[in-house]
Amino acid sequence: MQSRGLAKSPARLCAVRSCLLLLFIHMSSPADARRARGGRTQRVQPQQEQQAPAYRERAEGPESFPLDFTAVESNMDNFMVQIKNLAQSLYPCSAQKLEQDMKLHLLKNVSATCNDGSPAGFYIKESKGSRRWLMFLEGGWYCFNKQTCDSRHETMRSLMSSTKWPQTRRGTGILSPQPEENPYWWNANMVFVPYCSSDVWSGASPKTNQSDYAFMGSQIIREVVNELLTEGLQNAKVLLLAGS
């Protein structure tokens, strides 16, 4: 029972924060409107000075409650800072509803392979409704002959093969789904393309009987883009290409 209550606490906290933000915005609106009229602030009269017959209140519509914003107006800068801080604190609430991890998708075109002939692929975290896309190409140096590629395969196999890739991957930095770490791109559609061709993403040579390794970096990128077009990339408003 205790763990169930703890699981609900973030949602309750988000709801409380949302209510407070709406209250702050509602309170600030009359003050802004009074400034717009003639550039001077008009103080709202106390409630007891604006008493009206009960029948008039019912005839004019819903009951209203005049508020005195004198205390708020005397320290408006601090008030706006509080609103900003509260609004920023609500970002994690919406982030909790998003998928946190990127999921592995192996390419449908099996001719686009890693160095050892295993299928290449990409990780993706979709953001429903977003038309912003971020595509990140992993780096990792290269090899140029059998000796250097054999050594690389023994020491850095994940950069030459997809056989040990995990099914999910948590993004960091510009790929992070957390607004505190990634304030500009946290809710974009994110794609991470693992590097497994050892050719600086420029090769187009398949593995053959005469060659122990394939070098198909450019073909991998082409196939990744082709598959992303069917996932919503064709409707993208912004596409950021990044890498390491």
Please explain how this structure is put together:
InterPro entries: PAE/NOTUM. Residues 1-33 form the signal peptide. Residues 34-59 are annotated as: Disordered. It holds the Pfam family PAE. This protein is α/β, with parallel strands linked by helices and 244 residues long. The chain folds into two domains: 2-94, no CATH class; 99-243, no CATH class. Helices cover 36% and strands 13% of the residues. It contains seven helices and six strands. A six-stranded mixed sheet has the order 4-1-2-5-3-6. Helix 1 packs antiparallel against helix 4. The two termini are 46 Å apart.
Task: Give descriptors for this structure.
alpha/beta, six-stranded mixed β-sheet, 244 residues, 2 domains, disordered N terminus
Largest sheet: 6 strands, mixed
Mean of pLDDT: 78
Instruction: Kindly name the structural category.
Output: alpha/beta
Shape: elongated
- How big is the Rg? 29 Å
**Beta fraction:** 5-15%
How many structurally independent domains?
2
Strand arrangement across the biggest beta sheet: 4-1-2-5-3-6
| Helix content range | 25-40%
Secondary-structure element string: HHHHHEEEHEEHE
Distance between the termini: 46 Å
Which residues sit in consecutive blocks of at least 5 with pLDDT less than 50? Answer: 1-8, 30-42, 52-63
Query: DSSP helix count?
Result: 7
Number of strands: 6
